Amino acid sequence: MAYGSLYDPSGTFVTVSQVSPPALGQKVVFTTPGPLLETAPFPPGPGPGPFTDLEVLTAGVYEISMDLTARLINATNLAFNTEVQFRLFKNDTTPVLESTFESFNRITGGPGGNPSQVEIRNTIGRTIQLRLAANDRLSIRVIAASLNVMYRYPSIVVTKIAN
After folding, report:
1. Are 9 and 148 in contact (CB under 8 A)?
2. For 78-102, how does the pLDDT look when each residue is reduced to its tens digit (9 = 90+)?
3. Separation between Cα atoms, residue 58 and residue 89, nearest integer Å
């Protein structure tokens, strides 16, 4: 048996830096570990986070759930898209392609060229199953983001379901 979780319950919005593939964006940051057994927050250290990774200490098949609340703001009188995509990574460099989750909005200008503003907040996430080796570290990274994107309430939960 192994399980673990990381959260940020503060409600504080974190600004996402603009990024376009193939460049990688920032890691999602967590402040609070949940229950942990055979898992550990990373980077290790005394006291509370910030943490960017969750390390599994035993090999096996894990169910991994990730979610967060995304905030996309679009204020313009031109056609404009606001979007963000997140993806799970193993050991900082190996993307888990089936884990991508995203939010997107589009707005066109208001009547007569007047500016329109649309704000969208939604909780987005994904649950996958993945075979992991002992000491694999999991992180969520931004893989694409436009301007005016933020997130809050991120969580990652891992549960070992088989050896």
Report:
1. no
2. 566 788 999 999 999 999 999 999 9
3. 18
